[in-house]
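Bench notes, bay 3.
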Amino acid sequence: MIKMVTAFVAGASTTLAFAPYAIWAFYPAAMLFVLWQSRSLTPKENFFHWLSFGFGCFAFGISWVHVSIDTFGGLPLIVSMALMAILALYLALFPALAGYLTAKLSQYQQTQGWQVYFRYLGLFPALWVFTEWMRGWVLTGFPWLWAGYSQTQGPLSELGSIIGALGLSYVIALVCGSIALVLYQRFASVIIIFSLIFISTYLAPHISDISPRNETVKVALVQGNIEQSMKWEPDALWPTLLKYMDLSRPNFDADIIIWPEAAIPAPEAMVADFLHNTDKVANLNNSAIITGIISMQQNDFYNSLIVLGNAYHPQQTEGDYVGSGINDYKKHHLLPIGEFVPFESLLRPIAPFFNLPMSSFARGTYEQKNLNALGYQVAPALCYEIVFPEQLRANVNKDTDFLLTVSNDAWFGDSIGPLQHMEIAQMRAIELGRPLVRATNNGVTAVVDIKGRITHQLPQFKSGVLVADVALYDGETWFKRIGQTPLLILCSLIILFSFIYQLLLNKGRKK
């Protein structure tokens, strides 16, 4: 019981490794502590030990989810807390599975010769990464708080351009395994592993073909700070539109003006006159506006981005906006409950939480064309989509000028959720070697360079406009070329070998 409590505390401490604290060393320290503490436990005991670690990690790390459930869900506090506990417990199953299989597949050879090296340098890192990857797609996926995100502002961040966030999770598990071997009086592995990581991190920027274009694009990111409780009220529609226009008007000298997710909280057809007038205004000012909006095609509603004004050239005789799904982006990865409700006929009558505004969106395609704005190619990710590296990677090409993510994190108040969301977006810039701009309703609105560093930022919870010259780059990162596939193949082969080896051991013991 004491071990489970300390594992829970270790898991809870990993929250400090992510934004806004960004004390990156907490994650490997906590992982190493639980890894060593569980070395002599049975597979079943390991399962509950790592379940306790995962429960602590997610109960504290995603506590911000409760803000939206409690504020907008219409549920009694005890029910909302129970829902949070169930969610954290579900997510904790994945590290629990990694811990269980590590023990199960090495229970007969924990300290024998090469097997102990394989347990800590092969099996555990492979299982950790594989279960994190599973968490990113099972039941639509929730790849939040991957261990690798603790390195967004850490010393290993350069490696993200080669192996991505999931690869950084592998490196962290590998580091913990090598230090665990030191505690077994095996010192060579930690020297080799640390040397390889140091050399790889040093070489990462030198083997990249990302190069500056010596060109910038001037963007203006508009943060409306519209109260979430008012956002979908019919009476608030025109005041909202006027607020975005008033904030934008002094900044039409920017090349591209960007409004956040659902900045226009209405279907295109309902605000057609406003859109066409705004298209003309942007055109007259030799500019383009990218805005979030609700689009509709064939009786389906989509959470979308559209471009108003000049799509292809700085100076045109007229704007290019025509609607009808041309030069737009439709969100593909929808947020469960927030944007679609699984088993909705059963769940919607239960509570307001399952009947939030705009929670019946259709899904856009996985791969879509970049948005064209003033001749620039923009690869978008709408809100939650930014946490899925392979999806954004699939939509970036050699002509992509910069990454764009828009969001409305007003659901989560002044919690740590929006700051973690920003940190994840920073990792996408590192992985793909493109600057990233992020426009939100109430923060964090910011510009990120290709090293994942925030170069410009607006304060949260205030109306304002962030104007910045964004440097552009050419070339491709190694992660853009290879993605997660080589890492997942490696992990799969290690796990498969472990299963086969364990089967052979079991047969040998029975004879």
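Next record in the batch:
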Amino acid sequence: MAVGTGLALGELVAGLVSPSLSPVTAVGGAVIDVVPPGVKDWAIALFGTGDKMALLTGMGLLIAALAAVSGIVELRRRFAGAAIIAIFGVVGLVAVLGRTELTVIAVPVPLLAALVGMVLLRWLVRRLGEWPAEAGPPPAGPGPEAQLPSRSAQPPSRRRFFQALGGTAALAVAAGALAATFRGAAAVVSELRSKLALPAPASPAPPIPAGAEVRLESVGPLVTPNRDFYRIDTALRVPVVEPGQWTLKVTGLVEKEVSLDFAALLAKPLIERHITIACVSNEVGGDLIGNARWLGWPVRELLALAGPRDGADMVLSRSTDGWTAGTPLEVLTDSRDALLAVGMNGEPLPLEHGFPVRLVVPGLYGYVSATKWVTGLKVTRFADDVGYWTPRGWSERGPIKTSSRIDVPRDRRPVGAGTVAFGGVAWAQHTGIGRVELRVNRGAWQQAELAAGISKDTWYQWKLELPLTPGQYEVQVRATDLNGAAQVEDRAAVAPSGATGFHTVRVDVKS
């Protein structure tokens, strides 16, 4: 109870003075930074976009266990439990000092939380210590009435202890509720976002072609709604960035350093494009991929103002929370629509998707390109700098691999005999899909009906109707890009450069 109250008060104070950084998020971020890539892959495969909640839950259970230990040892030896809580505070302080979002005012917060926990622990233990001393020996005689004193006979110290415990619990609940609901700066930024009017694009997104959606039940929408768009990043708490204070700096191997604020960015000739982005942790058949209509300014135009020097081959983008991605320079300067995005599906970026500004780059996995809350672009070389995930075992450049997915029917779901409709999506961003095929029980490939794609930078929907009699069937899908290259059949894990293999479903056809 003492540790929980101190933690809750610490989170509340952090919410008021340091919205982007608290002891809990600092420790959680440090854990994310040091875990091996295999653990990260396992967590995403098991929990998907709920990986952060799983981490926080695990941290909560570990803290609760250590707090229980501190209470037990404090009761037996004075200041021993308080020393454990002090270690909590030191760990939190070290974690806070190691975060990029660090501000001077955030430094004392973990120490304050630990101090509150230590004081409450000593107070509660003293109250508990008074109880047995005042209770006296139990009454003699047989029967249940001899086991417990009557309510009126209970010692005042017992009542004082439970009153203290109840008061501490009430304080913890109140602080936790306020910390969860009142995030001063976050509330301000959310309000600013809701009132932000994005400019009309100088180059609107081309209309979605007729027939681009197969309109098959259980095949998702061609354009992913913001609320359903996957989110994979290392931020336990969404960074809070006020648009009026946002600045992007281009530095490094450039002829001229460039600084850009949000108002200047909105005044640029923005373009709007549909672009599909994907996470490198997306398993074969997975859903860590989405398609949206993005509004932004081409990165190549910003880099042209800076003038990259000869020998530069990488741009290291940096988020406000310190996360980095190393993107090939040629990808950001060629004709593709790599964007400094400010809008998503007709509205300002959601806070969790990078508000006010993020990078969106067609053809590359997000870990080397999709920097949210972006604040810096350093023109450099792969030989000199690395992004966040590269030294953790992931490949350097991260091109998205051609892949496809069966969305309907679902794996191992029974269907009725007769004509069975299969449908799904296929993608080869910045190359485009030329053909999608299915095969049943490892037989001949049969070409599916491929819907008109929005562009080569988005996924394509497809469908195929097959006559199936009662029985068990294994159905696989493969895609071929517009260059004639088929997706790789050999199964490979997501690390180090993205999963490969044919998505396979087992279909139980009933009579």
